[in-house]
Amino acid sequence: MSASPPSTWYVDFFTELPNEFWRRAVPPEVTVDEIDFVERRLGLAPGSLILDVPCGSGRHSVELARRGHRVTGVDLSAEAIGHARRAAAGLEVELVRADMRDIPRDSGFDAVVCLGNSFGYLELDGLREFAAALGGAVRPGGGLVVDFASAAESILPGYRAEPRTMRTGDITVLATGEYDVAGSRLLSHYRFTRGEEKLDVTAIHHVYTVAQIVDLLSGNGFTDVELFGGPDGGPYEVGSGRLLLTARRTS
């Protein structure tokens, strides 16, 4: 196995080049489908107060605000927050640069969304902190949506580490992966290329079972957990490419 990146890899990973690649790579209709799912499954009332964490470059925050919701987005990447502020001009969106665990815990939000596979960025102790923060952020009866593509039930069946090349416009990405068995984590190595510019970075996604995730959330006041395999509302199964989990905060 290659040398391990630091556990806080996400602090320096999300600079302009990786962020710009993913901004281009996700079609607008994907964001629309995801927010349709959030509104449908949580039954959001018009003008709901929603926390988007981490919000990245703001695609979900902006779409929620366009639909009339009041949104707070939190992300650690200065570049992403800057882009989100430009994209959200004229909309009711507050954007804050902070760690995903440093969110208000005053039970003030009608819903929290954690989309884009960021739930697995943290080691177990950090994830416990995040789950506690989520429980503190949502009002009694409020909702939660977690998007997680690194659940053990998704990653491990038939896992093969094969190189991939991805392109969008003038950005090319070579991606290779390896599974750290002792650490139960997926290491994704990326080489981003744009003209003469090259960037080599590694992301870590900690792999947790669905039972671990449900246990963490239920221990912080979330019940009525439901598991879906995508925004179309199909069931989550072994081998599903992603997990979309919804829950309610108990009173």
TrEMBL record:
Top-level taxon in the UniProt lineage: Bacteria
GO molecular function terms attached to this record: methyltransferase activity
Keyword Transferase: yes
Keywords on record: Methyltransferase, S-adenosyl-L-methionine, Transferase
Keyword S-adenosyl-L-methionine carried by entry: yes
Sequence ranges assigned to domain Methyltransferase in this UniProt record: 50-142
GO annotation, biological process: methylation
SUPFAM superfamilies noted in UniProt: S-adenosyl-L-methionine-dependent methyltransferases
Alphabetized InterPro entries for the sequence: Methyltransf_25 (IPR041698), SAM-dependent_MTases_sf (IPR029063)
CDD domains linked: AdoMet_MTases (cd02440)
One Pfam entry name: Methyltransf_25
Protein name according to UniProt: Methyltransferase family protein
Organism: Saccharothrix texasensis
